[in-house]
Model the fold of this input.
Amino acid sequence: MASKLTQSNGAGWAFALPGFGLIAIFIVLPFFFAFALSLTNQRLISPNPTEFVGFENYRDLMGLAVITLEPERDADGNAIRDEDGEIAYPRVRTITRSDDFPEYRGMREWFRWQSGENARVVIAADVVFMKALRNTLLFVLVVAPVQATIALGLALLINQKIRGINIFRTIYFMPVVVSIVVVSLLWRFIYDGSDGLLNNILAGLTFGLFEPRDWLGETSTALGAIMAMSVWQGVGFHMVIWLSGLQTISPTLYEAAEIEGANKRQIFRYVTWPGLRNTAVLVLIVITMQAFALFAQVDVMTQGGPLDSTQSLVFQTVDRGYRKQDISGGSVISVVLFLIVLCISLLQRWLTRDR
Amino acid sequence: MADLKLRNVCKSYGPVDVIKDVSIDIADGEFVVFVGPSGCGKSTLLRMIAGLEDITSGTIEIGGRVMNDLPPKDRGIAMVFQTYAIFPHMTVRENVAFGLTINKADKATKEAKVAEAARILQMEHLLDRRPSQLSGGQRQRVAIGRAIVRDPSVFLFDEPLSNLDAALRMDMRMEIGKLHADLAASMIYVTHDQVEAMTLADKIVVLRAGEVMQVGSPMELYHNPANLFVAGFLGAPSMNLMPVEVKEVAGTEATVANASLDAISVATKERPIRTGGTATLGVRPQYLTPTAPEEGMLHGTVALTERLGSETVVDVALRDGSKVIAAIGEDRVLAPGTEIGLRFDPAQAHLFDEHP
Ligand SMILES: Nc1ncnc2c1ncn2[C@@H]1O[C@H](COP(=O)(O)OP(=O)(O)OP(=O)(O)O)[C@@H](O)[C@H]1O
Ligand SMILES: [Mg+2]
Done:
């Protein structure tokens, strides 16, 4: 007997409503809000009326140009060098503040490289954003593959019938249960420059030869330190996803491969890995999304420093939107982030599609 | 030569003995079927031969070599699983050639062997498909193809047809029979299905709770079951078993009777049957013929008739309240409630000293 539930769609919609409603109110609506705000000059609290500014915010954020600086030359036409033998160039502000180049007005140097005698300088309208973008992309590029690979390795290790294997599963999963804020605080102690655990361990291992360093205080190590800690924290979660994927592979497939004489490597290549395809897509997409959302670690551990070397997109969004009250600026970054993540997940889906 | 010898093979999982002292000889080229009720250890025994399960004690010899500690690939066996176990992401061709790929065979060998297997199994047109585009029977064919390519001296089948529907099962059964005739390799075949066992086997091994109940040709087992278990297990509908009193034992014959059975004498076949004791008389339904009540050796009333067209199965309630089944090889109408007598040839009856 067909019930009313299966006949009318009304009941179905009613059941779906709470979920849909929450998603609509907290995700879809804010997104459209953000997009609308990103086209205005709205501030968090401001006496001035809101004005529509079109894509000006986007230009201010993403303006990028490469300028070429020629060396300053003496009367003979030779490049002037300072006492270290470095070629002297005119300052970038002679261009960005000059009325001859209105298109470069207000831009600042991001980085430069040498090309023959000339210097090429990349100038950006918003250097902090560019650094945040670069750091975030780098973070994703390093964390996603490293975390996925380590998680898979751990999953393979704990997917064995050994006594007490559940103890290992618990240990590897434990960091996931602890709040990322707490983990970040703990790792601040580990990375501490004067008496941190990491410095002590390295000193112990090298019999005191290792020079202690301030892992979070140096531009060269800060981002790497945050990456390492993030991988450690999230690896247990993805391990569990891999594990569930591993357990969907039929044991008879392994036996069939064993009878054919496949060795461990061949079994992984011909049985395990193909059986994990769908899991791999899931893990990669989830890790990528999570990595793009990098915020708490930065907020707790470095506040984007030193010298903006650990800025991230989400940190900048929050920093601008709330701390600097520039709600339209924050919205612009979140729209940009949305587009990047959208493109990447579409790309991943396409790369891992069923052929 | 790849004759296979199991010597006092045992298997225990912790304190549980799953296989108990099994010894079987299988000659080269023989088709052996393992049958038995669910959980009796058929698969376990087969997997021990394959090397997928280790042997607690005893030895397994193939072609004169003890195989106990060799990995599966070195035993000269190939196995076909109930769930096919073909690799879902590979084409049929890649699946069939898997063993060759693993062992880095060259391309020409690979192609020749795959073509040969495909020809034997008539699946040339399927070679470029993926398993998801195949029917159950075709998948099982692929699995058999992968086994053939290994060129094994012993094929192991674990209920290969039980995931297939009845009609297909019959086709594949015949094909496996043909394959055995063509390849002349030994085959060990596990099944639940009596018809598969009876039609395919050169030799049937009946197992129960990890012990061998009887080994012999299908007809030997059917006509001369060694014990009550084999008697009741083989044959459909299963053998009628009646408790009887032993009136007299004279030489190799015993005279038995009960409330609904007139005294008859049946061969004792050297079983310990004593005058004044009790025994179990077994008669297959096919050997019971209905007659007029006064002419019968068994007396009762018809309880139910099932007409199958070619055969009529009659449920008869005997005078002492027990039931027997008679299978008559023709279409007959017998109204429930009618008094009936049943006759049989005592030479077709079996007398067991055990009790069901
Ligand atoms: N890993 C194991 N640990 C403990 N007992 C097991 C294990 N594997 C199988 N058994 C037991 O061994 C016995 C034989 O199992 P097996 O799979 O060989 O039965 P089978 O005869 O193939 O049954 P079926 O006809 O249902 O396939 C069963 O009673 C089962 O419970
Ligand atoms: Mg089984």
Q: What stands out?
A: Residues B 13, 16, 18, 36, 38-44, 192 surround adenosine-5'-triphosphate (ligand 1) (CB under 6 Å). The first helix of chain A runs from residue 4 to 7.
